[in-house]
Amino acid sequence: MRCPNCKGKDIGKIGSNQFYCWNCFIELTLSNGRLSLHQVEADGSLSSLDDLFAEEERRVETDF
Fold first, then answer.
1. Are the C-beta atoms of residues 43 and 25 closer than 8 Å to each other?
2. Number of domains forming the structure of the chain
3. What is the pLDDT of residue 64?
4. pTM above 0.85, yes or no
5. Do residues 61 and 44 lie in contact, with contact meaning Cβ atoms separated by under 8 Å?
């Protein structure tokens, strides 16, 4: 799997269907073959980045 934001492969698993990109520091959640991307804010809250990416960029073909 590659990060849709930075195209990096340095992705770590942080939970069930939850991943973290160590290159650009965003959280990725896999649901129904589609990624939801979030930026972690200073207070620990998450801000959605989904509107910055096309549907095909967020699609994942591989099962984890």
1. no
2. 1
3. 46
4. no
5. no
